[in-house]
C-alpha cells in the first residue's frame, strides 16, 4: 500500500517544522473554495464613485447587486443595476450577470442578458469580479455596435449615432423606442 | 511461483497472469516498498471506491474486479437510459430505468467470482467524511467537473497529518470525444483537481455576440440559427430539441447562413449535436482511460511498479483525434490553490474576544501581518473591509464577541487582504480554555 507517510514527511521537513501538534478536534465546516475566492475578489474591489453594491444577505456573498451610475457618455444620469449570481464552480465558471432594468443598449437585450466577452467565451479562472465590473462599466461608456445582442439598437448606433443618442435618452426617461417601452432609469 | 495456490476456490487460472505481474518485482520496482508475499492478501482486504458507473465506470468496475480487488463500492445516482447501451456494456435493454450502480455491481459480481461490489444509488454529496474514510483508494469516472471538485475538496479536507490512513489517493479519469486524461492525486502532497482546473478548458461557449456577425465555423452558423434566428422568427412557440421538425428548421437556417459565408460542414447531425450540446462518447476512449486508471490502482495497491504521481509525472493526457498520442507530465501543485495550497493553521483565540480584537490580532501575527483583513466563516460573513455596503452591514459584528457571533471551537475562517492579493489565509479557531 501507499507509503505516503515517509514521502510526506520528507516533503515537509524543509517546511514548517515548528507548527506544533494539531489536536484532533471534531471536524468543522470548512470554507469552500468558491466562497474564499469571492471573498478575496470582494476585498480587492475598487468601485470608485460611480458604482456601489447591495448584499440582500450579507452572509451570502455569492449573490449581490451592482449599481452603476455613469458620469459620462450617452448613459450619463442613469442608474443601472445588475444582479450577480456566483455558482459553487466559481472561478471555473463566470458569474451569472443580468441587467435588472429594461434598457436600450446594443449589448444588453430586453431580458437583461449582457453581451460581454469575459462573461462568456473569454472567461478564465484568473479573471476576477473586478474585471467583470470594469467591463460592465465600459459598456456604458462605449456601447459596441459590432458585438450586438440588441440588433436594432446596434444598427441604430452604427447608422445614425445622433439618433441613437436621442433614443437612449428617450428610453432612459421611460419612453418608447421603436415600439418598445423602456424602464425609467434616470436618477 | 506458486501464485495460483494463493486463491483457494474459484477460477485459479484466471488470476495466474495477474499474479505474475503483481507478485514479482520488475525492473522499476522499488524494493523498499514491494512485499511480494503480502500483495495478494493486502489487495483482498483493500476497499476501493469507484465514483460513477457510466461509460468509464463500467470499464473501471470490470477492470478493478479482474485486477484482484475484492471489495469495491460504487456510487452513481443515475438510472440507465437506452442511449447508454452502446458503450455501457454492463447494462442490457431490460435494465433501462434501473440504477446504474446496482445493475453494474450485480453484473460484475456475477461474472467475477469472489468480488463483492456494494452499490450506492446516491449523489457523492450524500455521504460524509466518515464514509469516505473507510476506503484506501478512490477512482473517479465522472463527467462533471463540479463532482470532481467536490470529491477532491473532501479528500483534501480529510487529510490529518498525523494519520497515514487519512491520505486517500484519488485516481481520476475523464474523456471527451476522442480525448481523455488519467491522473493521480495524493491529497495535499501532489497537485490536486483544483490546482489543475486550468487543464479543463471550459467548453468553448460559442461567442454569441461577436460571431453572430462573423461566423468562421459550421458550429457558429448553427449556434446563430439556434440563438438568433430562432428568437427572431419563432417558427414554433417553444424550441423542442428532440423534435426533428425543429432541428430541421435550425439546420436549414444554419445551412443558408453557412453558404452566405462560404463555410462548409453544416449537417443535420452536427446541428443536432451543437443544439443538444452533445459531445460524442467514444467507447474506445473510455476503455483506454479506464485501463490507465486501473493500472494506477494496481500499482498503488501492490507497489509492483512506480505509479503516476510521485515523485514525478502525475498527469497523462491521451488524444485519439489524429492517430494516437499520449503525453505524460508533472502538473505542479499551486501554492495559492484554494483547496490544497494552504491548509488551515491553528489560531488560538479567546471566545470572549470581540471580533475587533481578532481582526486586530492578524496585524500582529508574524506570518500574516495584515493591515486590512476581511474575515468570513462558511456561510457567515464576519467582517468585510470592502465593498462599502458590505463593510457597513458587517461593522456591527466588530463589537460582538466570538461566542456571540456563534463561532465554535475548531471552526475554519478565511482571511483575505488586498495587500496579499494571491494569498488566502485559512485559520482553524482554537478556543483557549
Ligand atoms: Zn490544489
TrEMBL record, chain A:
EC number(s) per UniProt?
2.3.2.34
Residue ranges of every copy of the UBC core domain listed in the record: 33-177
Tell me the pathway. Protein modification; protein neddylation
A GO molecular function term, named singly, is: NEDD8 conjugating enzyme activity
Q: Which residues form a coiled coil?
A: none
The UniProt similarity line reads:
Belongs to the ubiquitin-conjugating enzyme family.
Name of this protein: NEDD8-conjugating enzyme UBC12
Automatic annotation (TrEMBL), chain B:
Q: Name one GO biological process term.
A: protein neddylation
Report the superkingdom from the record: Eukaryota
Give the Enzyme Commission number.
Answer: 6.2.1.64
Gene3D superfamilies according to UniProt: NAD(P)-binding Rossmann-like Domain, Ubiquitin activating enzymes (Uba3). Chain: B, domain 2, Ubiquitin-like 2 activating enzyme e1b. Chain: B, domain 3
Q: Where is the E2 binding domain?
A: 347-432
Catalyses:
ATP + [NEDD8 protein] + [E1 NEDD8-activating enzyme]-L-cysteine = AMP + diphosphate + [E1 NEDD8-activating enzyme]-S-[NEDD8 protein]-yl-L-cysteine
Q: In which pathway does it act?
A: Protein modification; protein neddylation
Which UniProt keywords are given for this protein, alphabetically ordered? Answer: ATP-binding, Ligase, Nucleotide-binding, Ubl conjugation pathway
Provide the top EC class. ligase
Cited function? Catalytic subunit of the dimeric E1 enzyme, which activates NEDD8.
Q: Which family does it belong to?
A: Belongs to the ubiquitin-activating E1 family. UBA3 subfamily.
This chain belongs to the protein called NEDD8-activating enzyme E1 catalytic subunit
Whose protein is this, by species?
Staphylotrichum longicolle
For this protein's source organism, the top of the classification is: Eukaryota, Fungi, Dikarya, Ascomycota, Pezizomycotina
Amino acid at each position: 500500500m501507499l507509503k505516503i507517510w515517509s514521502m510526506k514527511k520528507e516533503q515537509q521537513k524543509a517546511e514548517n517544522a515548528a507548527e506544533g501538534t494539531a489536536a484532533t478536534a471534531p471536524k468543522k465546516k470548512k470554507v469552500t473554495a468558491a466562497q474564499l475566492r469571492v471573498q478575496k475578489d470582494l476585498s480587492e474591489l475598487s468601485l470608485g464613485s460611480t458604482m456601489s453594491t447591495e448584499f440582500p444577505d450579507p452572509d451570502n456573498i455569492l449573490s449581490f447587486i451592482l449599481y452603476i451610475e455613469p458620469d459620462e457618455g450617452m448613459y450619463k444620469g442613469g442608474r443601472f443595476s445588475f444582479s450577480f449570481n456566483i455558482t459553487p464552480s466559481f472561478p471555473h465558471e463566470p458569474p451569472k450577470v443580468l441587467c435588472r432594468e429594461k434598457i436600450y443598449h446594443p449589448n444588453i437585450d430586453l431580458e437583461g442578458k449582457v453581451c460581454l466577452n469575459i462573461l462568456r467565451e473569454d472567461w478564465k479562472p484568473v479573471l476576477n469580479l473586478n474585471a467583470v465590473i470594469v467591463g460592465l462599466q465600459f459598456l456604458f461608456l462605449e456601447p459596441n455596435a459590432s458585438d450586438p445582442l440588441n440588433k436594432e439598437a446596434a444598427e441604430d448606433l452604427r447608422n445614425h449615432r445622433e439618433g441613437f443618442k436621442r433614443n437612449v435618452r428617450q428610453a432612459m426617461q421611460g419612453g418608447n423606442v421603436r415600439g418598445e417601452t423602456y424602464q425609467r432609469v434616470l436618477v | 511461483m506458486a501464485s495460483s495456490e494463493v486463491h483457494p476456490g474459484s477460477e485459479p487460472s484466471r488470476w495466474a497472469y495477474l499474479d505474475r505481474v503483481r507478485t514479482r518485482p520488475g525492473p522499476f520496482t522499488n524494493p523498499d516498498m514491494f512485499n511480494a508475499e503480502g500483495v495478494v492478501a493486502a489487495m483482498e482486504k483493500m476497499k476501493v471506491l469507484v465514483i460513477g458507473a457510466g461509460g468509464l465506470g463500467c470499464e473501471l468496475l470490470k477492470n478493478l474486479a479482474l485486477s484482484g480487488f475484492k471489495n469495491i463500492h460504487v456510487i452513481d445516482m443515475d438510472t440507465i437510459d437506452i442511449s447508454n447501451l452502446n458503450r455501457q456494456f454492463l447494462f442490457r435493454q431490460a435494465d433501462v430505468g434501473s440504477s446504474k450502480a446496482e445493475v453494474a455491481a450485480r453484473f460484475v459480481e456475477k461474472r467475477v467470482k469472489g468480488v463483492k461490489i456494494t452499490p450506492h444509488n446516491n449523489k457523492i454529496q450524500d455521504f460524509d467524511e466518515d464514509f469516505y474514510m473507510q476506503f484506501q483508494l478512490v477512482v473517479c469516472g465522472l463527467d462533471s467537473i463540479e463532482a470532481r471538485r467536490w470529491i477532491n475538496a473532501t479528500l483534501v479536507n480529510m487529510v490529518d497529518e498525523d494519520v497515514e490512513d487519512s491520505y486517500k489517493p484519488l485516481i481520476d479519469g475523464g474523456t471527451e470525444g476522442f480525448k481523455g486524461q488519467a491522473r493521480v492525486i495524493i491529497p495535499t502532497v501532489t497537485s490536486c483537481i483544483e490546482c489543475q482546473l486550468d487543464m479543463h478548458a471550459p467548453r468553448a461557449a460559442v461567442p454569441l455576440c461577436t460571431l453572430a456577425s462573423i461566423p468562421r465555423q459550421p458550429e457558429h452558423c448553427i449556434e446563430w440559427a439556434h440563438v438568433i434566428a430562432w428568437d427572431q422568427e419563432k417558427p414554433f412557440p417553444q424550441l423542442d430539441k428532440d423534435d426533428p421538425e425543429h432541428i430541421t428548421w435550425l439546420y436549414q437556417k444554419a445551412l443558408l447562413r453557412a453558404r452566405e459565408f462560404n463555410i462548409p460542414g453544416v449537417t443535420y447531425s452536427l446541428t443536432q449535436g451543437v443544439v443538444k450540446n452533445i459531445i460524442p462518447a467514444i467507447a474506445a476512449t473510455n476503455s483506454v482511460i479506464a485501463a490507465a486508471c486501473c493500472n494506477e490502482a494496481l500499482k498503488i495497491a501492490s507497489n509492483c511498479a512506480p505509479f503516476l504521481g510521485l515523485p514525478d509525472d502525475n498527469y497523462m493526457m491521451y488524444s485519439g483525434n489524429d492517430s494516437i498520442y499520449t503525453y505524460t507530465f508533472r502538473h505542479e501543485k499551486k501554492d495559492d490553490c484554494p483547496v490544497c495550497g494552504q491548509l488551515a493553521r491553528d489560531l488560538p483565540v479567546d471566545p470572549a474576544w470581540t471580533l475587533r480584537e481578532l481582526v486586530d490580532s492578524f496585524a500582529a501575527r508574524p506570518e500574516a501581518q495584515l493591515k486590512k483583513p476581511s474575515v468570513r466563516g462558511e456561510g457567515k460573513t464576519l467582517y468585510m473591509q470592502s465593498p462599502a455596503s458590505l463593510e457597513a452591514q458587517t461593522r456591527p459584528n466588530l463589537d460582538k464577541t466570538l461566542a456571540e457571533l456563534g463561532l465554535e471551537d475548531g471552526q475554519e475562517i478565511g482571511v483575505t487582504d488586498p495587500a496579499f492579493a494571491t494569498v488566502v489565509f485559512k485559520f482553524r479557531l482554537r478556543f483557549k480554555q
